[in-house]
Amino acid sequence: MKKVGFIILAIAAIMIGLIVGTLNSAPVSLDLLWVQFEVPLGLAILLGFSLGLLIGLTMIYMFRVLPLRLQLRKARTALANKDKSGSDNLALNLPDD
Predict the structure, then answer these.
(1) If you average pLDDT over each of 17-21, 62-66, 78-82, 87-91, which comes out highest?
(2) How far lies 60's CA from each of 41, 51, 65, 66, in Å?
(3) Range of the domain at 26
(4) Number of separate domains in the chain
(5) pLDDT tens digits, residue range 45-70?
């Protein structure tokens, strides 16, 4: 089921990219301090969107997901140490990160 959803999402992304690229074909000049490019407007829009999405997802991972994973690892280690210390509780089967 996940594979079908991924294929549908990929086809939708390709179609949106083609539509944006086709409707915005006028050339624009990009000045990046040391180098200048002349690219179609549709490509500039899609590159800006993709770069923003990539930076946003990276920041979410670095500042939200990674600290939560470290906190979970500490909690699992503390639970494992407590379990090894001689208590007669049933051991929990916890998956690894």
Answers:
(1) 62-66
(2) 29, 14, 7, 9
(3) 2-80
(4) 1
(5) 999 999 999 999 999 999 999 999 99
Task: Write out the DSSP string of 44-64.
Answer: HHHHHHHHHHHHHHHHHIIII
Residue with token string 């997802």: 57
| Within-domain flag for 20 | yes
Helix (H, G, I), strand (E, B) or coil at 30: strand
Question: Virtual CA dihedral for 78, 84, 86, 89, nearest 10 degrees?
Answer: 80
Phi, psi angle pair for 92, to nearest 5°: -90, 135
Smallest CA-to-CA distance from 41 within 30, 25, 29, 52 is with: 25
Amino acid letter, 27: P
Query: Does residue 94 belong to any structural domain of this protein?
Result: no
Residue 66 lies in a domain: yes
Regarding pTM above 0.90, the answer is: no
Per-residue pLDDT tens over the stretch 26-47: 999 988 889 998 999 998 999 9
